Amino acid sequence: MKSDLEIAQAARLREIGQVAERVGIQQDELERYGRYKAKVDLSILKRLEGKPDGRYIVVTAITPTPLGEGKTVTNISLALGLNRIGRKTINTLRQPSMGPIFGVKGGATGGGHAQVVPMEDINLHFTGDIHAVASAHNLLASLVDNSLHHDNPLAFDPKEIYWNRTVDMNDRTLRDVVIGLGGTPNGITRESGFDITAASEVMAVLALAEGYVDLKQRLGSILVGRSRTGQPIWARDVSAQGAMAALLRDALKPNLVQTLEGTACLMHAGPFANVAHGNNSIIADRIALKLADFVVTESGFGSDTGAEKFVDIKCRVSGLRPQAAVLVATVRALKMHGGAFRNLKDKAKVEREDVDAVARGCDNLDKHIENIRLFGIPVVVAINRFPSDTEKEIAAIRSRALEAGADDAVPHEGVVRGGEGAEALAKAVAQASSKPSTMQFLYELDQPIEEKIRVIATKIYGASEIDLSTRVQRRIEFFNQCGLGKLPICMAKTPASLSHDPSLRGRPRGFKFPVTDIRAAAGAGFIYPLAGDIMTMPGLPASPAANGIDVNESGKISGLF
To answer: Where are the beta strands (DSSP E) in 202-241?
Structure first.
């Protein structure tokens, strides 16, 4: 089989106006970025007002492994399959960050015959949204330091400035820096740092904002620091929100692209799921739901991270309610959770039939099904099938999934066969989504911050208790003083385990969940505790993917995956 990039480059794409016309987007609502991508003007929301919404499907997964479970592949495959069975469907997805692309994870446009294209454009600069987010973020940082430099009228405590700078690249050397060196003309010397742009609160704001007025209000509500007298200082105090919103004017408009089979995809915003809420924009979903019978969206990582935040943050803000969830699993990932192998070096163990290991690994599957059922959402397990998977292994997963309360468990072959390979999955999801959905939140907003953290850790992760450091307890007191105590929780933790410890695979039980730091993303509208050794700026591996990416004399790119 050809590589993902080769398949994408060989595809014959529809002109973006044709893609728009097929789903009911008018030509004067398009802002073209070349022939194959465009932005959708927000005026479309006014035109579509009053139309009924389609069915809302969220795709999540078991705990990720280095094998890759294929969540985006399944998202795209499902939409292709739904279209093939006569259900008008639109994908909504996050856009990729360049840090992981050049690091170890690769791109975020799917794979094989279940891809969103143009793959190279999307994985690199796309329409410039991430650059706009970085510019707005760094403008605020500059205004904060400018206020500090010019006699500090807001009485910033230089040791209590919470707003770092950002860059869309994995660069561990920027995690902690000293700025303002070189004397008084260069500003006030202080410690600071960089976060990757996808972890920026501005990115989270972009995904949650419902229009320009809401965008500006949220940007002004960003908590940037504390004064020497202990008072909170907000972005509006340095008059940043207007200029930041101006930089984000076009970025607030969703991007329209297509799949290899011409299905429309609104790809917009890219907040990390291990730090931020890990879901695409509310605006993109609102538009898609007015245009389609089904909208297939995706939440980052597993049900413990992206899906929990999808419900408790995104759905709480938007008022939207999913009719079904799709939980992605693979035979090989469950074998890894079941202890059949520790890494990918032994290919024979990865591909050898091992029904017992699959059964042991299904402990992890059980917990993710349980998590989705806690929210009252029907769930279908999608088994992303590989050629080495055996019927016995597939049967073991299906049996265990149904026993755990899944509505169905269906293998699909979207990577190899595109929409044709996902028709059975599409029918199962259509059936499950026709049932009553009684979605409920995990906690109430008026519960104390500590209690909301405890509910998530014990009910979703399986912890027996939480451990809050003294620093965290002091910060919680400050947040309560700032009037932030009723915000939802956006936990920042490893995606590689249900727990805080990435080495704990399967279904860990009875562990203590340590919260080592806690921050307020008041503009985005959540509090985010940090658990374990989570970082907001990734690093590159020993052999980064960047080393294999190239462009030839005609401008053709190679090495992306």
So the answer is: 223-227, 232-234
Query: For residues 302 and 483, is the Cβ–Cβ distance under 8 A?
Result: no
Tens digits of per-residue pLDDT, 412-456? 999 999 999 999 999 999 999 998 878 999 999 999 999 999 999
Structural domains of the chain ordered from first start: 4-127+256-433 (3.40.50.300), 129-247 (3.30.1510.10), 449-531 (3.10.410.10)
Cα–Cα dist 20/40, whole Å: 9
Task: Say how far apart CA 310 and CA 208 lie, in whole Å.
Answer: 11
Report the amino acid identity of residue 455: V
Question: Would you tell me the crossing angle of helices 355-374 and 391-404 to the nearest 10 degrees?
Answer: 30
Report the pLDDT averaged over residues 73-80.
Answer: 98
Would the pLDDT of 470 be above 90? yes
Backbone angles phi, psi at 75, to 5 degrees: -55, -50
SS3 504: coil
For the cut 80, the answer to whether the pLDDT of residue 344 exceeds it is no
Please report the pLDDT score of residue 109 as a whole number: 95
Bridge partners (DSSP) of residue 264 are 258
- DSSP-assigned states of every residue in 353-366: --HHHHHHHHHHHH
